[in-house]
Amino acid sequence: MPNGTGMTVDVMIDIESLNITTDSIILSLAAVTFLRGGAIEDYKDELLLVLNTEQEGRTFSHSTLIDFHLLTVPNHAQAYLNSPTVMLPDALTQLQEFIQTRTNKDSRIWANGCCFDVGILENAFDQHGVSAPWKFFQVRDLRTIIDVFDAKDLKRQMQEEVGDLHNPLSDCIWQLRLLQNLLCGG
């Protein structure tokens, strides 16, 4: 949505899931709006939801659960256990409203990997009869930008600065800062 500066509001999304398939249980999700072409620090609104893991028809992988969430990020596992949770249909409706009230047809929806985060979310939207708040042509992939700019070292540096990997809100913020840095030369 243009905001008087001529810049469009885009959205960075990130999820944490318990599998790598599109029908994965979604553990948490975040979305952060930012001005395309704006300053790196110029992000606007944010949404963070921790979901109830009782999600009928959705799957988890024992290896993802054990190897990733419990062994490599034990602090997050405890944080998730102590956080209030939202049921998946409610989370999808909140995400839909968050995006629809802040964007327009010119906005882009960014994810670190559009086939992963967006694919899992689109599957969940479809499963629950909720319209995805984006069109296919609005979706963009940060990994492609990183490859085009050969920016793997910068990506690692920005991840280390955040220091809170696999927290979807922190991930959204470092991802949008990296994107702005690469596209705007900031």
Structure characterization notes:
The chain has 186 residues and is of the alpha/beta class. The protein has one domain (9-184): Ribonuclease H-like superfamily/Ribonuclease H (Nucleotidyltransferase, domain 5). It is 43% helix and 18% strand. The protein has seven helices and five strands, in the order E-E-E-H-H-H-E-H-E-H-H-H. The protein has helices spanning 62-70, 74-82, 88-100, 114-127, 142-148, 152-162, 168-184; strands at residues 9-17, 26-35, 43-50, 109-111, 139-141. The protein has a five-stranded mixed β-sheet with strand order 3-2-1-4-5, with helices on both faces. Helix 6 crosses helix 7 (168-184). The longest helix is centred in the C-terminal third of the chain and has 17 residues, at 168-184. It is globular and about 45 Å long. The protein starts with 8 loop residues before the first strand and ends with a helix. The mean pLDDT is 85.
Total number of distinct structural domains: 1
Strand content: 15-25%
CATH architecture label name: 2-Layer Sandwich
Please mark out the parts with pLDDT under 50 across 5 or more consecutive residues, or reply none: none
Any idea what the radius of gyration is? 16 Å
What is the CATH third-level topology name? Answer: Nucleotidyltransferase, domain 5
Q: Mind summarizing the main beta sheet?
A: 5 strands, mixed
